[in-house]
Amino acid sequence: MAIRRRTWRNVDGERIEGTWRHAFIRNGGDHFLTDLLIYADGMVDCWGLETLDGFAGKLASGWVATDLPEGARASAHHLASWKFAEPKSWLTPEMLLGEVRDDIDRLNGVPDSTGRCLAAVDVFRDAPTEANRNAVREAYEAIPEHLRRYALGDMDRKDFPLRVIVAGPEKQIELWGGSTVDVTDEMHASALEYFAEREQLRKRYETKTPADGPTEPVESSVLINQVVFPRGWPENPGTLVLRNEFPSPLVIGNRTYPTVAHAYWVLAVADEHRQAEILGAERPYDAQKLAEGSALRDDWPQVRVAVMTRLLRAKFQQHPEFAETLMATGATRLIYTEVGSAFWGEHGLEGRNWMGRLLELTRSELVAAKLDIAP
Length: 375
Fold this sequence. Notes:
- The protein is built from twelve helices and 14 strands.
- It has helices spanning 52-61, 93-107, 113-126, 130-142, 160-167, 185-207, 260-268, 272-279, 284-292, 300-318, 320-327, 354-370; strands spanning 6-11, 14-27, 30-39, 44-45, 49-50, 64-65, 73-76, 80-83, 172-174, 180-182, 222-224, 250-252, 255-257, 334-336.
- The strands form four sheets. Strands 1, 2, 3, 4, 5, 6, 7 and 8 form an eight-stranded mixed β-sheet that branches. A two-stranded antiparallel sheet has the order 9-10.
- Helix 5 (160-167) crosses helix 6 (185-207), helix 7 packs antiparallel against helix 8 (272-279) and helix 7 packs antiparallel against helix 10 (300-318).
């Protein structure tokens, strides 16, 4: 399955998600190991974009090769070349086409051939008619042949319970060793019970909460937006007090800084004279502009997260009213927008949001201290 290998292409400014897998292209008698690119819109790049039908034609013609002849020449671009000796291919054209179809389904967030087969089993369990059994059989046979044994994700029983349902009582199924066995009523009932237990396990898994709480916030994210107020901050700023440029004098050592932003840029630059200018800057914006024209301290990228963490702790310890605003955001994700820094904030689809993360950390520390459970 290639879906974990992600790629994409741009079509008129729209990002089309994709995945890729290795494949051989046969051109002029030689075989070239390359990447087969598969996209959510059904296009496949095999040395040129093709529709899914076009890709099927490339498989049928041998352009995309699954048959590797003894002694055939092959190469990987700028890597190596060789000849096949006792080659063994694991895929037929039909198998590879089936895998590509499944990849396209998964890229679009819809059930693949295995998912459709298991859904058909659920329908049969609710209404065990022969028509519904035939639907299970058709869905099972639509799974690429080499993937059927993995359909249940059970390496002990493989797809045996599924094949029992497909066949039905008084029919024969082939075992993995090549022998056959007659499906009895007891075997069929056991297979149905197997799927019932799977359903119960699935429901328990979906509703299970990790021991330490949910993995993701259960409430809507809080956006701490970057806004400019030419006439000054609003009378009721709300979560804007969490911004680094919000007026919140803090004392660090023997200095008093007007804002976290002032403190950050003073500590960032190496020149003492420039530090004094930054400290006296009228606005956080002016402080940043002064710092941008200065040499930063050595290894500043390594220490900046630690420095910012300490500044945030100082801000909310020295301004309990702001700490209350931060704690009131609960366990939500905090998204800090920042046009000028893709490291500290987010802007559009870009940004690492480190400021949001540190605010969440500081919030957690404040709540733990309030509850007296901090170690």
